[in-house]
Amino acid sequence: MVTAHGDDDPVTLPFFVYGTLRPGEHNHDLFLRGRTESEEPARLRDAVLYEGPGYPYAVEEPGAGPVCGELVTALPEAYGELLGALDRLEEYVPGDPGNLYERVALHVTRGDGAAVRAWVYVAAPAVAARLRARGTLIGGGDWHARR
């Protein structure tokens, strides 16, 4: 796994979104409209979803999953701005022990079966531990289908 810790010039990867950034959710238009080259269905293996206060958390869990979402490729000219905006949205600061999310590079599977590395915001270790102990699991790993 490649983390963003200490990266001044992070690797350019697509993003895997599974919650409020998915099409039809409230943050999609606010953050992604006009900044993406493509968006396609994808799945994240070895992870589960937990309910958060109005948004989900993906928690890495070997052998579990998949988590359903979209693989989002940013327009090259919008990449840096989008990366910064998403880090701020997720309140992610590299190396901050108070993070709710960590941005990590994981393999996701596209609809055609190809594996692609992508940035994924997963629950930070302390948050993941709390969720495993007393969180509400989202069955089926699909934020859209929870309703």
Automatic annotation (TrEMBL):
Matches recorded under Pfam families: GGACT
Transferase as UniProt keyword: yes
Signal peptide (UniProt feature, chain positions): none
Listed Gene3D superfamilies: Gamma-glutamyl cyclotransferase-like
Keywords: Transferase
Membrane spanning residue stretches: none
Entry-linked CDD domains: GGCT_like
Molecular function GO labels: transferase activity
Domain Gamma-glutamylcyclotransferase AIG2-like: 15-144
Name assigned to this protein: Gamma-glutamylcyclotransferase
